[in-house]
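Chain A, query sequence.
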Amino acid sequence: MGFFKQLQHAWNAFFGNDPKNVDYWGGPPRTIDISPTYLGSSYNYDPSRVILSRRTEYSIVNAIYNRIAIDCSSIDIKHVRVDDNDKYVSTIDSDLNNCLTLEANKDQAHRQFIIDVVESLFDEGNIAIVPIDTTIDPSSSYDIQTMRTGQILQWYPDYVKVRVYNDRNGQREDITLPKNMIAIIENPLYAIMNEPNSTLQRLIRKLNLLDIVDEQSSSGKLNLIVQLPYIIKTEARKEQAQQRRTDIEDQLANSKYGIAYTDGTEHITQLNRSIDSNLNSEIDSLIKLLYSQLGITDSILNGTADEKTMLNYTNRTIEPVLNSIVDEMKRKFLTKTARSQRQTIMYFNNPFKLVPLANLADIGDKFTRNAIMSSNEMRQIIGLKPVNDPDADALRNKNLNKDENDATVNASTETDENVNDQGDPNTSSNEKIAGDTSLSDLVPKD
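Chain A, predicted structure.
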């Protein structure tokens, strides 16, 4: 395309949205307005984001929710096909797999969607994954094109009422859907996190009380006691004491440096230390108890955990949550016909993610030497591009010379052929001679 053609067909987001835009190269004015008159409801924040309850949004519990949700989203979930032994065979190219690996909806990628699911699950205890756009009516066989997280409001025998974000009008709407159409997920850690008297709920209440105490202690009050030189028992004396307190407050408020004066007979006592309470000690004990029940440590939250700690955390915390999500998707989003065709939904955790580079070389040598992984597969784990060498995709021991292997195979093949030509190798030499010699050759001649 030439220079003037590029100028003619070029489009800029800012110039293209201006209806008064003109062609400065001498052409007629162009009116390009790609936006309709009404764009819909507008917000100064993303309305599709998960909204946590007020009892947790101001406490450190959000950090725990977010840490577990991020770790769950880092594990790949795919729509796959398995063999008769439930072993992974191939990935199915479907709209459902596109939701799980690329884009769940027009507002969320697949990892943001899983974070939304896990955080809502921890906050509510029970959530619904609602198929929004499907190929045909969801009452029959269909393929899911987009999905969103829904808050369950009411339960019925065969239906649930959920609140879902409608990306057409930008509002959260309440809809009633059948249970067999949506994935209803229950928090596997419900007894620890969502029960009214569970460890996490007790910790939330204590943290909220601590926030209230901190706000009161930092509210700017002086906490002074003024001792007047007379006894306050009558109403006149009380009014006089009230007037004296008001005078001191006005002096402190209206003074540039906050200075007030008192009479020489008055004594002022400042309460400069707070009342001692056991809130901090109770919160520390509840945090330790919660960490032990969830399988979380301080090293996991600050990123200094070793491989064994992360393995224990993955097995005790991450995998139960992912199993609940995957099993319910498998039960509701795959029909019996699809399951009979060996279709399923699985999650794949990278076992080499936490392996140090010094140990990865030794592991790669063992895996390639024992024909478990090819060289190109190990290169992808390290982050290198695969090579076009056919030997890099072969499952064989690279420490053995390929030519020697071929020679050994050829030698063994020739030995087998000779044995087949000569008969049984255990046959004695006399029997071989007798078998190859005719009777006339054994008769002596004159």
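The beta strands are 76-82, 88-91, 126-134, 144-155, 159-166, 171-178, 183-186, 224-227, 267-270, 343-348. The chain is about 45% helix and 15% strand.
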